[in-house]
Amino acid sequence: MLKDITLGQFFPGKTVVHRLDPRTKLLLLIVYIVALFLAKSYFSYGLVLAFLIAVTLLGKIPWKAMTRGLKPMLIFIIFTALLNLFYTKGGTLLVDWWIFEIWSDGVRTAFFMVLRIMMLICGTFLLTYTTSPIALTDALERLLNPLKKIHVPVHELAMMMSIALRFIPTLIEETDKIISAQKARGADFETGSIIRRAKALIPILVPLFVSAFRRADELATAMECRCYHGGEGRTRLKVLRYARIDLFAFFVGALLLAGVIVLRRFGL
Amino acid sequence: MDPTKPIIEVQDLTHIYSAGTPFEHTAIEHISLSFHPGELVGVIGHTGSGKSTLIQHLNGLLKPTSGKVLYKGEDIWKDKKFTHSVRGKVGLVFQYPEYQLFEETCWKDIAFGPKNQGISGDELDARVRRAAGFVGISEELLEKSPFDLSGGQKRRVAIAGVIAMEPDVLILDEPTAGLDAAGRDSILENIRAYQQAQNAAVIMVSHSMEEVAALCSRLVVMNRGTVAMDNTPADVFTCADKLTEMGLSVPQVTSVFALLRAKGLDVPPDVYTVRYAVARLLERKEGRPC
């Protein structure tokens, strides 16, 4: 049940996209998002979309995984589309019925907004689908490293993040187990009023918190036993290094951004 | 209740986890088994052989991919209400059940199960006390917080929480894992006491061959998602080679006797408890053939 959560699930693989340095991918995602927000026309959207599709194909990510990822956001997307459809006025009046008015500009904005949100989500999914959470935190730590100069505890934050990420599957598994166990004792989570259902969560949350605290305690002890003392003087097993494909990826990213800006200049 | 009729049975049961995803994995395949009232069945098998998947089908926690689970001859998935009520009839104690305790007092925690069945008042109190009695939790402990108890006591309270529903079928997933010898023996004794008092069917998953040999009247051996053997302990432990192949072992006393036989001593091959071994050896000493 809970195991089926796909949000940001990592698909292991050996494609070019997987092999890129996680820092490159993170920066490229930022470039992609900027490009997406600069895009204003069919041409520029087409360009960004082509980039998205190319990376998806290169990363061998199944289309199903992409659409499945969009599902939880469906309500949000529909809501945005409707708001834009009815509240944008301009162009020619297409429909005028009762209190509803639909203008051609509304259709256009709604279409672009939906496209933008969907492409935004798909883009972030591409990153998490092709990059393991640990690599991602590593990249974040390295990219934020300069902030250490102003006494931001970058290493500690990254460590906390990777520990949190590391324990998500464990906690999901644990939650599943506790739910099963309480169900075996006749607990009912599916029927009744909201208050009843909220109350039904107590038998899950209490054991979950108890075990989360126990795990945190044990982990802290285990880390101390291995002389962990924060980031100072710490070396890494896997040192991140930019390779030639990263350079190429940056080039493609720059091209994408330049393309969108040029198209924008020409009003396309 | 007719003791010749199975209380719970599975027919051609198959379960596939995450069907239709890259993580698809067949846990059990075409399993058919039946369990009768008063039986004490041990389920053994290496890690990942499908034991846990099998037992979670028996009380409707997992829905079969194909096949049926019948409680007293009725399909437990025939309607939602029935599935829910079966969970009270088929009690399942998970591995490390002490991690599911959540109430302020042991009494309340044990009462959670029967309360969900709709029992209240004096009957509820009687059930809680009876269940606590079976597992040897004293009256004054009932008013304590379960989080203040020792590991072994917590485990007992958790088992009592299932026993309090007074199930006809009691399933335990490694009830003695992580306990010391004394705790192990007394919990097994409690389980036997419950089985005899209620004439319940008890199904116990275990990794300890000694434990199942001493307690169970029937052994189901699982291997790679199928039932490899289903027989009396004596017959199962005679096939020591087959068990070793499956990554299992035989009780130590059985290995000792096998070695004795290999050395040319005329001892019986079906020895699997120390008590039985002693009896046979004494018989031998008195000169009778065995």
Helical run tally of chain B: 11
Query: What is the beta-strand fraction of chain B?
Result: 15-25%
Low-confidence stretches of chain A: none
Radius of gyration of chain A: 23 Å
Helix-strand string of chain B: EEEHEEHEHHHEHEHEEHHHH
CATH architectural group of the largest domain in chain B: 3-Layer(aba) Sandwich
Q: What structural class do helix, strand and pairing data of chain A support? A: mainly alpha
Which structural class is indicated by helix and strand composition of chain B?
alpha/beta
* Strand arrangement, major sheet of chain A: 1-2
The tally of beta strands of chain A, per DSSP, is 2
Overall 3D shape of chain B = globular
Average pLDDT rating of chain A: 86
Proportion of residues in β-strands of chain A: under 5%
Instruction: Note the total helix count of chain A.
Output: 11
Radius of gyration of chain B: 20 Å
Average predicted confidence as pLDDT of chain B: 89
Describe this structure in words.
The complex is a heterodimer of chains A (268) and B (290). Chain A is mostly helical. Chain A folds into 2 domains: 1-131 and 239-268, no CATH class; 153-237, no CATH class. Helix content of chain A is 68%, strand content 3%. Chain A has a two-stranded antiparallel sheet. In chain A, strand 1 and strand 2 (100-103) form a beta hairpin. With 290 residues, chain B is of the alpha/beta class. Chain B folds into 2 domains: 8-233, P-loop containing nucleotide triphosphate hydrolases (Rossmann fold); 251-290, no CATH class. Chain B has a 6-stranded mixed β-sheet, with helices on both faces. A 4-stranded antiparallel β-sheet of chain B has the order 2-1-4-5. In chain B, helix 3 (106-116) runs parallel beside helix 5. The longest helix of chain B is centred in the middle third of the chain and has 18 residues, at 181-198. The radius of gyration of chain B is 20 Å and the shape is globular. The chains are: A mainly alpha (268), B alpha/beta (290). The A-B interface holds A 3-4, 11, 177-178, 180-188, 202-203, 206-207, 210-211 and B 18, 22, 56, 59, 61, 84, 87-88, 91-94, 97, 99-102, 112-113, 116-117, 147, 161-162, 165.
